[in-house]
Amino acid sequence: MNNIIICEDNLDQRKKIEAIISNETKKFNCKIALSTNNPHEVIQYIDNSQNSFIYFLDVDLNSDLNGFQLAHLIRTYDPKGYIIFLTAHAELTLLTFQYKVQALDYIVKGDINAIKVKIADCLNAVHNNLNAAKTKNDNKLSIDVGSNVIFLDFDEILFFETAGKEHKISVHTFKGQYEFYGTLKNIEQAVSSNFYKTHRSYLVNTKKIKSIDKSKMIVEMTNSEICYVSLRYIKGLLKKCLK
Questions:
Q1: CA distance linking residue 198 with residue 219, whole number of Å
Q2: Gap between the Cα atoms of 124 and 109, Å rounded
Q3: What does pLDDT average to in each consecutive run of 10 residues of the chain (243 residues)?
Q4: Where in the sequence is the domain holding 96, given as residue range(s)?
Q5: Using CB atoms within 10 A of its CB, is residue 134 exposed (0-12), middle (13-18) or buried (19+)?
Q6: Response regulatory domain: which residues (predicted)?
Q7: In terms of domains, do 119 and 159 share one?
Q8: CA 140 to chain CA centroid, nearest Å
């Protein structure tokens, strides 16, 4: 079970949510990793983490970032995280379409007992989803491309590279090329052990390498596309390819 991050600007509300969540997490192997009123602290925390989280985000944070904007940023660092919005205004939930944020649920503030039930439902849903994922084929990667979710077999993928835009990744496959929001760090955690980071901008499927030019530091893939390898990674790449 993923650990939990709370971002709520109202201290009294935040303490109540912490108490509810702490009671529920006793059923699962997880804890509250961060509870704050500062959305920038959330981004800093997950940027320095290798893990995926469950996020409970207040919509109105009285900051330069609202909950939807924070969620949009979270998706670039933690594309597989679960986001639950907390709001006093149910009508605001429609704004998730404007910000292109996928949310697990929306919890309307008010009746504390209703909030307890909703939080319990959300955590149970995450628990069930994670358990179901473990039983599925581990050789697939899902990526959000616009409004579509694309599922790729690892064997179809040649390499990933940074796309020249902030937090954009390009994945090269035998069938085509797709761009999506993400980071190489998060992708490296999601793919199989056949993938190797050859450069700060490249993550390569070593089973699809045709040749490596050590003098030019170039990796040629089986479809003749070219990647690059940096000096610090060349030794590890050669060793990886011999396994």
A1: 9
A2: 20
A3: 93 94 87 96 91 92 92 87 84 56 83 91 84 58 80 92 81 91 82 90 95 95 96 92 82
A4: 3-135
A5: exposed
A6: 3-124
A7: no
A8: 15
